[in-house]
Write a structure and sequence with these properties.
Layout: H1 2-15, H2 23-36, H3 45-65, H4 74-82
Helix pairs in contact: 1-2, 1-3, 1-4, 3-4
Family: Belongs to the complex I LYR family. LYRM9 subfamily.
Domain Complex 1 LYR protein: 3-57
InterPro entries: Complex1_LYR_dom, Complex1_LYR_LYRM9
Length: 83
Amino acid sequence: MEKALKVYAHVLRLVRRLPKDSRPYYAKYARENFVNYRDFDASDPKALDELFHRAYNHSLWVLNKYSVDESAARKLKDVCFNG
C-alpha cells in the first residue's frame, strides 16, 4: 500500500508538468485508475510489479505526448522498479 501511494504521488507531480488545460483530465484519470485497483490482491508481488510498470510506462507516454522531458519521471521509475 505504501508503495502504491508513493507511485500515485509521483504521478500527480508529473501531472503538474503538463499543460494547464490537460492537468484536470490526467489528474482525474490517475485517481480513477488507482481507485479501480484499490481492492487488488496485494499478495501477488508479480502482479503488483506489473501494475507499477504500467503506471510508469503510461506516464512516459503522456509526458512524450506533451513533449515533457522524460527525465522528469526518474523518481517515479525508481519507486516503480526499485520500491
